[in-house]
Amino acid sequence: MTGGATTARDDRSLTATFARLIAATGPLSIAHFMAESNARYYDSRDPLGLTGDFITAPEVSQMFGELIGLWLTDIWTRAGAPYPGHYVELGPGRGTLARDALRVMRRQGMAPAVHFVEGSTALRAIQREHHPDARWHDDLSTLPADAPLLIVANEFLDALPVHQLVKTAAGWRERLVGMHEGRLAPVVGARPMDAAVAMGGTVSAALAALIADAPDGAILESSPASAAAVRAVAERLAAQGGAALFIDYGHTAPRLGSTLQAVRAHRKVDAFAMPGEADLTAHVDFAAMAETAEAGGARWMGTAEQGPWLHALGIGARAQALARSAPAQVATLNAALDRLTGESQMGTLFKVMGLANPGWPAGAGFPR
Ligand code: SAH
Question: Which residue, by CA, sits nearest to atom 18 of ligand 1?
Answer without folding.
Answer: 159
